[in-house]
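[step 3/7] fold_predict: job queued, chain A
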Amino acid sequence: MSLPTRQSAHSLYADDGRRLAATLFEPSAPPQAAIVVCGALGVPRRYYRSFASWMAERGVAVLTFDYRGSGESLDGPIRQDPATLYDWGRYDMDAAITAARSRWPDAPTWALCHSFGGQALGLTPHRAELSGAIVVASASGDMALYDTRFGHVMRFTMHVAIPAVTRAVGYMPGRLGLGTDLPAGVVRQWSEWCRTPNYLVGALGETGHADLAIPMHFFRIADDTYAPERPARALEGWYQRATVRSRTLHPREVGLRKLGHFGLFRPGKTVAFWQEFHAIIASNFP
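[step 4/7] structure written:
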């Protein structure tokens, strides 16, 4: 049964003072749980609007946000924005988790991590305050884990295209295939991590992935070339203390021909998978 909901713009403030644009989706009654949507690289928060509204209609509050330097969290000229991927994880995702815990203190808080969100969850200082996480279409970016053909494309992107474009124009234009415009520091660090064995864990050394002891439900997508099985399983291995469950979603399960890396949160037949996510969270309602 669908419940009345309200949607409102909101501002988050990270520990380093950066303001982030966010949206709250709330049921009219006190929520039974809350979700922080930690989105994919280059994907604005508006992409998750239908999913967030659907969850709120079923008693689960949702917070979506734009990472610094992107979407409505861009503050000033993008060429001058110092944002990095590390900032997105340690500051921005953490600010969203803290805000959700403060806004809905009586509701268990879950992270819904899409792509980059699943990679960076171990960087957030308040990660242990989560009741669980649902991780979708996420994988280690270590290029050595990818098949030869896709690996060649990505190596060209990381070694040649990103450095050349960011030097030439001072940022990465979204029209080149990464969704929204992104600051140079974000895509340069992404490029560096992808060229490092074991991706961000190898590049940063000490992270909090291995100590996160919460239930984590990983969903791979069968036709996802960005997060295929081998690198996806490598990512799961980072979370050594988590209670890990994983499965592969097939488009044909819901009557679709394709789903891919970005298809799961588009409204339509994908609602069948959203119901699965809701059931996981509902099984832990107080």
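[step 5/7] annotate
Strands lie at 5-13, 19-27, 33-38, 60-65, 109-114, 132-136, 171-172, 182-183, 215-221, 243-249.
The chain has one domain: 5-142+208-282.
exit 0
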